Amino acid sequence: MISFSQRLQRLPGYPLAEIPAIKRRLLEAGVDVIDLGAGDNDTPPPSIAVDSMTAALRNPALSKYGFQQGLPEFRQAAARWIERRFGQRFDPFTEILPLIGSKEGLSHLPHAVIDPGDVAIVPEPGYQAYLGGALLAGAEPYVAPLRPENDFLLRLDQIPADVLRRAKIAFVNYPNNPTAAIAPAAYLERTVAICRTYGILLAYDNAYCELTFDQYRAPSIFETAGARDIAIEFFSLSKSYSMTGWRLGFAAGRPELIAALTRVKSYVDTGPFLAVQQAGALALDHSEELVAPIRSELQRRRDAAVTALQASGFTVDSPQAAMYLWVPLPPGTPSAVLARHALEEGGVIVLPGSAFGPAGEGFFRIALTVGVDRLRVAAERLGGALERVRRGPVATTA
Ligand SMILES: Cc1ncc(COP(=O)(O)O)c(C=O)c1O
Question: Which residues 6+ apart lie within 8 Å of 241 measured at CB?
Fold first, then answer.
């Protein structure tokens, strides 16, 4: 018999893992499914990226191993984009690292800093790759709850000093998945100061920095004084350019930090497909014109979904960023039960807050991945599900 590692056994079930099978079952049964589960927009990738990729496939040089160096043009385009977007300069060859999606870099990073007994600080609710990466590296996770009364900010200043002393890494993500919260400058300053005091690597996940509304502009962590010493920042081409399946992102940070992650990665992968890097470089160079329509479409979807959910009996605020609504439920309503009713009777896939851990209970997440008409239909069906849950009786074994 094969016995599996404790590290493997400690991994909680991945919230999105079962959705494709459930969706297939419902579609086969003829259900009109509205999938608001994964953060995977229905908008197509930019045609300049598609054209570039198509041409790249005919260039045999781009079918070779990329290794960690990857395509120099991608590194250079990433450095140019960071400078245009945030006014921060990074050397393309020592301070930027191409990633097979930012998830890959985020989940591998703990291997660079964790020794047995070290603590990794992870948000809950939060993107699951942080906890998974920490557990697989053998870290002791410290789960920091993101609470509405703290504006869903991960408050390092509320973590006991003895935990901070043992912590080697903290994952911080704003604009946030799943809460869509954003981080004020004063908060980022406090966070950087604490990481500097305790020597904690700040893994700043900025996957949603381009998806902002109402004139809000999301900063880079490097706009905070002193961040360069302790932070590494992760960017993704997935959401801003609807290129989720292409698997492309990058990390930025000072050379020692980038070199450490490069060293880990050189043992586990051989870098993103060079053809994808070529297309990605073009997307980054055209970022302003490509992201604007995605941003305004998401803003329309946000407005339509918020209005429709409110009309269906939910109380939900209008977020300024990301692509999610984190919808509170009436007290005592189990999120898994609501999600199951929505799915089985309404064909609407949402993520229950409890799928993100106990601190996510009391909410559910919808991703703004379909057009306004479908979002309105989904909101109505979710309202029906809420009614049924309220009327009860309900099973609690979802
Ligand atoms: C907060 C956050 N970070 C990172 C990612 C990963 O993005 P990718 O690996 O596609 O770049 C996601 C994807 O949903 C996310 O929500």
Answer: 45, 46, 49, 283, 290, 291, 294
Unique residue bearing structure tokens 């991994």: 11
CA of 352 to the centre of ligand 1 (A): 18
Q: Which pLDDT tens digit goes with each residue over 298-351? A: 999 999 999 999 999 999 999 999 999 999 999 999 999 999 899 988 999 999
Q: Please, what are the domains in the chain?
A: 6-45+289-389 (3.90.1150.10), 47-287 (3.40.640.10)
Query: Which of 235, 386, 378, 215 lies closest to 301, judged by CA?
Result: 378
State the Cα angle at 214 between 372 and 296, rounded to 5°.
40
Q: Ligand 1 pocket: which residues have CB below 6 Å? A: 39, 101-103, 127, 173, 177, 205, 207, 236, 238, 244, 249
Phi-psi region of 44 (alpha: psi -120 to 50; beta: other; left: phi over 0): beta
Reported as half-sphere exposure (CB side, CA atoms, 13 A), residue 258 has a value of 22
Per-residue model confidence as pLDDT tens digits over 301-311: 999 999 999 99
Helical pair 72-86 and 274-285, crossing angle rounded to 10 deg? 30
Residues whose CB is less than 8 angstroms from the CB of residue 314 and which lie 6 or more positions away in sequence, other chains included: 327, 328, 379, 382, 383, 386
DSSP structural state of residue 321: B
pTM of the predicted model as reported, rounded to 2 decimal places: 0.95
Atom of ligand 1 nearest to the CA of 205: 3
Task: Out of 16, 19, 100, 102, give the residue to mutate to test ligand 1, the one with the largest number of ligand atoms within 8 Å of its CB.
Answer: 102
Angle separating helix axes 287-311 and 372-391, nearest 10 degrees: 30
- Rounded to the nearest angstrom, the distance between the alpha carbon of 86 and the centre of ligand 1 is 20
- Out of 41, 103, 365, give the residue to mutate to test ligand 1, the one with the largest number of ligand atoms within 8 Å of its CB: 103
Helix 274-285 to helix 47-57 angle (10° resolution) is 150
Unique residue bearing structure tokens 């996940």: 205
